[in-house]
Amino acid sequence: MTKRLQSITSKLPAVVALCLLILLWHFVCQSGAVPEYMLPSPMQVIKAFVTDLPTILKHASVTLQEAFYGLCIGVGLAFVMATLMDHFRILNKALYPILIITQTIPTIAIAPLLVLWMGFYMAPKITLVVITTFFPITVGLLDGYKSVDKDSIDLMRAMGATKIQIFFHVKFPAALPQFFSGLKISASYAVVGAVISEWLGGFEGLGVYMTRVSKAYAFDKMFAVIIFIVIISLLLLLAVNIVSRITMPWLQVEKEKNHEICKTAFNYSVRFFFW
């Protein structure tokens, strides 16, 4: 009960800040400081969201397919690349600077080239999602591999473990926290990357729908799509958190132990102070 209460109270400031932001948005619209066609009120956005929900869901199914395929391919390529770069140091020295340089190129600059090269179907969208999701996971895995305790590796070698056994029993489990940190970033990037690529060409998708409603100056529908994308991104982050807790139960146990140690130390210090 106490843990649940602490979880609720920790999220309370964010909820209050969000409510205040919505109230400020409402008052600005009511005051007439901004024209209604430029900034629709929260009620207009909610009405547009409910009215256009079937259309939004239809376009969202295409965007989510592109994001899912691109994320899966990006994770697979990142795992292979990070593992090879960790195993071969010369490969790490050769490719890591190139990875850093590729991240300085804006995504919006790559998208038109991909559309020209691959057409207006799913291929350029999936490719852009792969490009945007590849880097965070690769870097996360590399950092995780490097953080492994060398004594654990030496112990496994002394016990006659092979390189594959050391990798799957020591290195990969140690890299999982960093992997899931990168996956959280990549999951949100996947949806954003798919939407950006749809802005520049396509027949279906949330990005195509946003382009159409913006050209019609239907900003209430535009805000409705933005809210829908935010909801999708938050659900993806929640899904990653759930999967990380399932695959790394030892972290939750360590967290609870640390909490109990801190609680005990605090109680002892309070007793000592007032004794």
**CATH third-tier fold name of the domain at 57-138 and 181-248:** MetI-like fold
Average pLDDT number = 81
Q: What global shape is seen?
A: globular
Helical segment count: 11
Portion in strands: under 5%
| Radius of gyration of CA atoms, rounded to a whole number | 24 Å
- CATH architectural grouping of the domain at 57-138 and 181-248: Orthogonal Bundle
Largest sheet: none
The count of DSSP E runs of length 2 or more, i.e. the number of strands, is 0
Verbal overview:
The protein has 275 residues and is mainly α. The chain has a domain at 57-138 and 181-248: MetI-like (MetI-like fold). 86% of the residues lie in helices and 0% in strands. The protein has helices at residues 2-31, 42-51, 53-87, 89-102, 107-118, 122-146, 150-158, 163-199, 206-215, 219-247, 249-274. Helix 5 packs across helix 6 (122-146). The longest helix has 37 residues, at 163-199. The chain is globular, with a radius of gyration of 24 Å. The model is unreliable at 265-274 (pLDDT under 50).
Index terms:
86% helix; disordered C terminus; globular; 275 residues; mainly alpha
Concise overview:
The protein has 11 helices and no strands.
Which secondary structure elements does this structure contain, and how are they paired or packed?
Layout: H1 2-31, H2 42-51, H3 53-87, H4 89-102, H5 107-118, H6 122-146, H7 150-158, H8 163-199, H9 206-215, H10 219-247, H11 249-274
